[in-house]
Queue: 4 jobs
Job 1
Amino acid sequence: MILSDFHALILVYCMYNAVVKCMANCKLKNVDDEHSMKLLEKLEPLKGLTFQHTFVEKNHHSYNYTLNICTPVSLGNFEDEEKLTGVLQEDQKNVDTPFVKIGRINSTVVKGGENWLMLTYTHGDKYNSHCNKGCDDGSDTKARRQAHVMIVCDPNHLKGDFAVLYEHNIGNYETECFYMMELKSSVACTSVSKGLSSGSIFLIIFFSFAVAYLIIGAVYKRCVYGSKGLDQIPNIAFWKSCGSLQADGCNFLCRCQESGYNSNQPYTGIADDQLDEEIDDEHLLPM
């Protein structure tokens, strides 16, 4: 009987953890969007991490923001009955209502491109006076808060810097009012090259063959022919003449050497001292 009760407690505990885990996941507004589901899977390494930032307004009024990725925000002095808060705002000067829920993880929109992701938590707490004009819902004209978290590529850090950029609350519709935030993380990187380039691979292969050629050739000549010193280098006669062959090729292709027949030297004739005897050419004259 005691064993059965123990098993029942374990079963209840496992069911409770499964329910909490299911509730903790982000839920898309459009569950049939396969592209958004793939983008949401990219955020899995950030799940459970907490990011905090203090935003100071121009009047020196400060707010503390806490962001969780697809897990509810949990603070010591904040109780979230629904366990769905993704972004929480804390106003330390407001004693009556210090906490404001900016967005919930069960109402998520995900967009993405090259080296960036946009995570949006919607259905936050209602505005008191801002963004309440022009709403289509006649029964409840108060718009709800939402947070746009722009996740940009940082290839060196999984948990990079987090900052609240600004709050846009001047619009007349709920979609025009939002909190803009920025988070740097490697999960947003899509074009980071982690492999070697083709040139590097070619150089590695070339030098590997060159080293193997020298080592194997030197060992072979030393063991078989008993060569020593520089004579151990394989094909040493070719390598000694290689420089001369290159010089001859350069001389043939690049240098213009003119022959005697093509020289532009003027004709000077034959000097008298170069004639050994007088040539008799009278018989060549016509009779």
Job 2
Amino acid sequence: MPPPLSHPQLPRAARAHPDNDDARKRDIQRTTLVAVATNATLAVAQFVIGLFANAFSLVADAAHTLSDLVTDLLVLLAARHGADPADINHPYGHGRIETATTMVLGAVLAAVGVGFLWNSGLRLQNMNALPDLHPVALGVAVLTLIAKESLFRFTLAAAHRLKAPLLEANAWHARSDAASSLVVAVGIGGSLAGYPFLEPLAAAVVGFLILHMGLRLGWTAIRELIDTGVSEQELEHLRQTIEQTPGVIGLHEMRTRRMAGRVLCDAHVQVAPRLTVSEGHRVSDSVYLRVRAAHPEVQDVLVHIDPEDDDSLQAVPPGRLPERADVLATVATLLGPDVAVPKRVQIHYLGGRVDVDVLLDTAPAAADAQALRRRTQDWLAQQAHYRSISFYTPIAP
């Protein structure tokens, strides 16, 4: 039984968490705009100084920085639409836009890593072909390295604070650009000091690191896209929260999946077998509120209320259980035409069989009650799907 569309107000701690979609979207966009401004400034500086100092490695690094602007725009697009509310075509929201973009950025990181490895191999084979560089290029490369490393740390901190894998991917992309600037700085410094072999060696080490990070981020995004659940430790914490909710007597099935750093949870909760629908629904609401308050990373909880453990049902007779209309017809037949229509009929489907409680408006005469009891016992003896039919009368005030 899922919770209603309108839930009671969440505790302040849950409402104030940065998982709030609007605030989260603004923070992601603000962080990405800082990256856009930084990359644009660095690209212009690298391109101009690279041409002036005859440092073609700086010009190439400028092209790499310009490529970051494209990925930054992808992040802005994903952040803008990833937090859009659910609609008819996307009933679970648009969070997977962030996941898909993270996978793309992971692929870009892996490609950059492969590129560094490839270029380092070529440079090792052609070390004598490296051009003479002006010393000013080294200063620009060092400043670029500092700026890129600072941007990496700033973006990664925001990614952890907002629980945004998309920002984390973009942060490591900034680290890859810092790595390329490191390669340029080491290469220029080595060339000025007479050790040109330092550049291809540094490029190879950084290439391996970038390739590993790209593959890791891409694999994380793929795991989310195929609905991989949370860790066993996180799952155990969720179980404890649900099982400690008043009214819950068992939890026999729970599923989780991630969506853009948030968690969606489905739980089969066992309650007392003869609770009313409204009381069972109240237990469902309690589970929802407790999980959301204790686990702010959980965006939604779908609670299915069960009157018994589905995994421990006894052997049931073959055939279809009677529907309510069939039960009412049976009760009417047993009562006969001389007894008034029952005030209320409650049906309990438990253990693969049916228990029926019938509340009468008035108590029948003693003879009629005895005859009703015999008819009911004889009828139950021939029915495999019925366990009991009980008749009750109101207590006189």
Job 3
Amino acid sequence: MKICLAIYQSRLAALFDNATGLQVYTCESDNTICPAGDISLPFGDPTLRVSALSSCGANILLCGAISGCTTRMIQEHGINVFGWLRGDISTVLEAWREDRLETLLMPGCRGFRCCRRFRGPHTTQ
């Protein structure tokens, strides 16, 4: 499984639209997370950003705030989106591995249930 984090410097970007790049990781069956590369994201057009995300073979996107329209575009490529998260990269990866992403939700977010039925970060829709 490939997990992508939409980043700005050493943290998740507060907004997916402002992310400067993606950090790609593979998640092995024993829950080991290994770096698999970095991708620079084009600024502006969301369709170019979605294409960059899709071209790396991502299964999961972990990001900050993201619009419903962009989320749907990403999901149409078969990528599961976990948005409205905050934190530095190591904290986010650890929360993923421990199945506790909900502890990193941005203030004011009512949780994954407000946007869709939550089935846990390790399952796909």
Job 4
Amino acid sequence: MNGLERAISEVGGVCNLARKLDLHHSSIILWRKNGRVPAERVLAIEQATGVPREEIRPDIFSKHESTGVAA
């Protein structure tokens, strides 16, 4: 399960995630289709769901960034 799918699961579905982010559910569906969450939405998803940013977008966030541990 990728980070977006886990975030969707954590809040109980696409519509619930969209509500938490104050977005239309079609945005979440588009991210799912494209296989990528926009970088500017990652931190809000992390805050709303508890899914770590490096799991949502591992291509731009490393585990060290979210934990504050020096690389």
